[in-house]
Design goal:
Blueprint lengths: L13 H4 L3 H16 L5 E3 H7 L2 H9 L3 E4 L2 E4 L2 H4 L3 H29 L2
Antiparallel strand pairs: 1-3, 2-3
Helix pairs in contact: 2-4
Amino acid sequence: MSWVKLDDSLADHPKIVSVSVPARWAYVEALCYAAQYLTDGHVSDGKLKTMVSAKIMNELVCANLWHKVANGINIHDYLDYNPSADEVTKHKQEVSKARSKAGSKGAAKRWQNDD
């Protein structure tokens, strides 16, 4: 499971206040999608079609919360506040190695004490 970071002042941010409530939710949904699927803040056109109307997408682009690119959108400043896919993957690998090492150490200790 990944996590997305939301500033506790997000609800009062001028860019957020300038868009409709449905657009705000779409912004949060896009953040969650990008974090879950490790897209580095990119949402494809295909996913956008299931997520927002053209009107809401335009609201978010005009508010400079999303940037339209050839094959979808990029969430403004996503990587300034959230780890990249590479960072998340590296962290997961490090945690996995640490757990494996701890498990091996525990198993070795258990086997040494079983008489």
